[in-house]
Amino acid sequence: MRNLVFCLLTGLCVQGFAGDAGFAPIFNDGVVLQCEMPVNIWGSAKPGETVSVSFAGQNKTALADQHGQWMLQLDPMKASAKPGRLVASFQRAGSTVQISKVQVGEVWLATGQSNMVQPARVTAEGREALKTVHPSIHFSKVPLRVGAPHIPPCTEVELAWGEFGPGHNDLAAVAFHFAEELQPKIGKHVGVIQCSYGGTSIESWMPRELLLNTPGGTRTKAIFEYARRRGYGAEDWKEEIASYNAAKATESEWMKKKQGKRPPKPTQPRLGNPFLKKTPASLYESMTKEIIPYTARGVLWYQGEANVARPDDYVELLSAHIGRVRQDFKYETLPFYIVQLSAWGPGEEYWPEFRAAQARVRDTVPNTGLALSLDVGDELNIHPTNKKPVGRRLAYLALNDIYDLDTPARGPRLKSVEAEGSKMVLTFDHALDGLSVADDSESAAGFEVAGSDKRFVKASASITGKTEITLDAPSVSKPIFARYAWHGFFKPSLNLYNSAGLPAEPFSTE
Question: Which domains does the chain possess?
Answer without folding.
Answer: 22-207+282-401 (3.40.50.1110), 413-508 (no CATH)
